[in-house]
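note to self: dont lose this again. the chain is below, predicted strucutre after it. 306 aa total, dont forget to put it in the shared folder this time
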Amino acid sequence: MQQLPKTELQVSNLCFGGNVFGWTADQDQSFALLNRFTELGGNFIDSADVYSVWKDGNRGGESETIIGNWTSSKGNRDQVVIATKVAMLETRKGLGKENIVLACEDSLRRLKTDYIDIYYAHSDDPETPLEETLEGFNSLVTSGKVRYIAASNYTFDRLGEALQISETHGFANYIALQNRYSLVAREPYESDGARSVIEYGISGLPYSTLGSGFLSGKYRPGAEVSSARAEGVTNNYAIAENFALLERLEKVALQHSVSTTAVALEWLRNQSGVTVPIASGRTIEQLDALMQEVKLTSQELVFIAG
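---
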């Protein structure tokens, strides 16, 4: 466990991404994943009100509902750190003050809890003044419905502006940044996101850390993969440079007798601006692979990155 900067939160070295709950994992499968995650020492769970609206028949909130049903059935709400987000669900879109407050009430109801540990602005909303957004978040913190607030998909400049406004008005501050980052998507995080984390002294909690599953090693040139993410992976990551990177990753994984996903996540943990990576899996086998522990040498870190 480690303490997130500027908080009292003690979290595991992996945050389990709840985007699979209600999408590629139904409630029973999700319960099994969450049970296994906590058995292996995990306690940090990430969700959003928009998860998983993209599945036919879903309306959003499915992930939160499953998490709430699970904590309720286990009686372990105080043993897990739950993060969720607002701004991208079409029926609760944007970061206006009223919308933030109403969306939070929706999330609390689905999560079956009276507080959210970390509540994110899921994406920047340039159409709403930052003062209004932060006033809305601050009202939730002062009322005890949210412990900490954070930002996702914010640039260095916009995050800095938000932090300055919070300081000026005495509002709650963003304590973390959640932006995309992986071995196959290193920019703009390495030039912008990491700078935010380091200069502002907040937590870096990157998402899409395995390139939508590409770094699991199951994607090969010309191979057909049965996965809900396969098309996106093929379109975004299936290039010669990334296949060469995957070969390097596999060599290191083989030397340590661990999965390529474990090595990819440990590489991230050793990068500037990364506090805890977020990753998900839809099966117990995938989760077990994510949770394997490995220590990499400085030479291996350089070799993997190429």
